[in-house]
Amino acid sequence: MSTRSFNPPVRTLMGPGPSDVHPRVLAAMARPTIGHLDPAFVAMMEETKALLQYAFQTQNAFTFPVSGPGSAGMETCFVNLVEPGDKVIVCQNGVFGARMKENVVRAGGEPIVVEDNLGEPIDPGKVEDALKKHRGVTLVAFVHAETSTGVESDAQALARIAHQHGAATIVDAVTSLGGSPLSVDAWGLDAVYSGSQKCLSCTPGLSPVTFSERAAEKIKKRKSPVQSWFLDLTLVMGYWGTGKRTYHHTAPINPLYGLHEALVLLKEEGLEASWARHRQQYEALRAGIEAMGLSYLVKEPHRLPQLNAIRVPEGVDDATVRSKLLHDYNIEIGGGLGALAGKLWRIGLMGHGANPKNVMSCLGALDAVLAELRAPIQEGAAVTAAQKAFA
Amino acid sequence: MSTRSFNPPVRTLMGPGPSDVHPRVLAAMARPTIGHLDPAFVAMMEETKALLQYAFQTQNAFTFPVSGPGSAGMETCFVNLVEPGDKVIVCQNGVFGARMKENVVRAGGEPIVVEDNLGEPIDPGKVEDALKKHRGVTLVAFVHAETSTGVESDAQALARIAHQHGAATIVDAVTSLGGSPLSVDAWGLDAVYSGSQKCLSCTPGLSPVTFSERAAEKIKKRKSPVQSWFLDLTLVMGYWGTGKRTYHHTAPINPLYGLHEALVLLKEEGLEASWARHRQQYEALRAGIEAMGLSYLVKEPHRLPQLNAIRVPEGVDDATVRSKLLHDYNIEIGGGLGALAGKLWRIGLMGHGANPKNVMSCLGALDAVLAELRAPIQEGAAVTAAQKAFA
């Protein structure tokens, strides 16, 4: 057994997350730990809530980071909003929709799955049909930005349809928050969860969530207790709420320093500027990818700029390419998940990592590795095309 | 809304946790983030598991840190081991026993509460009686080291009795791990959870757990699915197990760097040496506390060295004292929880923070604050008494 300190290699993280963490966030992680009920910490919690309201574009009072990764945020939404026997429409067009279904089942709900092809957005017409067919649906759950395929769905349209049928929404915004337009209040989203490790340039482990008045009411009116004690919002809000702070669990102090710093960075840049930067980097990357002769899984109007799902060309071994990028260039990109394993590369341009240096080095390295493997690409074209796009 | 970086005050953390974090752990938190499936990270995961086996004194294969605070570790044990209708004996002699009961109820189990007074250890005789009275009990759950009162219970005796009646055990070792004797295999404990922020000198947010063969078998034989997707061990072990790593959730990378470093520190010092150091600091603190004329809640043979529960003297306002310690001396100590609110101070000597400097500064500051408030104490006696104890 080793008893040596761990010194990680220095990677460039361009997969589906975690993404490159801003140096200011890393520095914040190492600040002196203080108590979870320290007045100075409580003041920082209030700032974090306000900064998250800005990031989510919401006035929701129930806006805070869950003390666990995105899957804990997902589960927070489901166990608090689903009661045994509830009918829940789950839109499924990727891996994370399938997880939502699993969450509904385990919370005792009855999932009604509305399926779309991998790489395609959720069809609002199908959701409307399902709502007409199944009376008494209480929730519509969907992924705004599918990290497994890089597709964006029309969250506003889906929320409108859900509300027209008296249903609230649970929305996965893990990959969208901070990276592409998301407007919780204007779009009327009810329960939204995200992650710290994507477009916020923060370390993984926290899950920002927000709950509308409608969602908060639904939770208050529950007939059965929430099955999770750790994720029970009525208890958690005793700590994160505005009144006297009641100890519920010991908050992850230093990771919360990191998230606060990441949100300060987002506020300094401005949300719209951040969205625009992500799009600009995507356009340059796309120019390079297409010049190489590679293609995207998702059609243009539905592509997420921060998650580029690129088809692995015929005859090329996905894992070999990713391994070479990691070992020879210290660049991490992602592979496909589930049915898309071996068929996709997922290149993330997220948060701090959405910058021209990363675009260029990734394209240059991918070009070199594919050329070395004699893949059927247009060698040497990628970097020049991206340069032109940036010009 | 502030958009400024947060710079916490520099406190000395001598409450019930978080405790003072070792500078090497803080430095580890700021190391460059890498991917959760990076080969370098996977190698570090293996080291962390081995180091945790050492800390827990176990060979259990199912030994890893849950990606959430101690309450998530607690819930991991209960939702995986309790099935609907299961009879579970819950020993209750403090706040954390009450939480265990809540966990049993929410997992659909039938709790049988065996109660002992606050500040007293769990009476193994009562547990034996309950096991004889209620046939078919599947689990006995108890807190080894009650953080709310500073009392230690005889985990080995309780586990022996449980096994004699065919029941497995769930054990809260949040405050004991690393600070006072805990020997999972020798004592025959089945499911044990702890926290990173107590005697490991690490930041809060992770919960080391370990499961015996008996517990692992029980989980494999479940008739109903685990109600939590996030905490379902059969899924989590797909990521933390030894075979091909399957993505379950994005691990909290940097906090895991911190935990690894904390465990390396523990290995460097040696577990027995760490236990001895905690006891030595306790003896010096106790000498000072008693010289002042203050008294402990818990009787001597059952006291936890790392959590000193001291009675607030008559006529002294608990909150005023803690507030003065925090603001005038930057020292945090804890107050009482639940029925003991306002009646107790909880002084932690945990991990890195269990050192003579902390003992002396805490005694000196407490002495000064109490003297200022004209409390009925023996002024100026504490520090000298502690010095003698150290000599």
UniProtKB/TrEMBL annotation, chains A, B:
Cross-referenced PANTHER family: ALANINE--GLYOXYLATE AMINOTRANSFERASE, AMINOTRANSFERASE CLASS V
GO molecular function, one term: alanine-glyoxylate transaminase activity
Ranges for domain Aminotransferase class V: 33-336
Cofactor(s), names only, from the UniProt record: pyridoxal 5'-phosphate
GO biological process: glycine biosynthetic process, by transamination of glyoxylate
Family assignment from sequence similarity: Belongs to the class-V pyridoxal-phosphate-dependent aminotransferase family.
Entry protein name: Alanine--glyoxylate aminotransferase
Positions where N6-(pyridoxal phosphate)lysine occurs in the chain: 198
Binding-site residues, substrate: 346
Organism, scientific name: Sulfurifustis variabilis
Annotated keywords: Aminotransferase, Pyridoxal phosphate, Transferase
Statement: the UniProt record of this protein carries the keyword Thylakoid: no
Organism domain of life: Bacteria
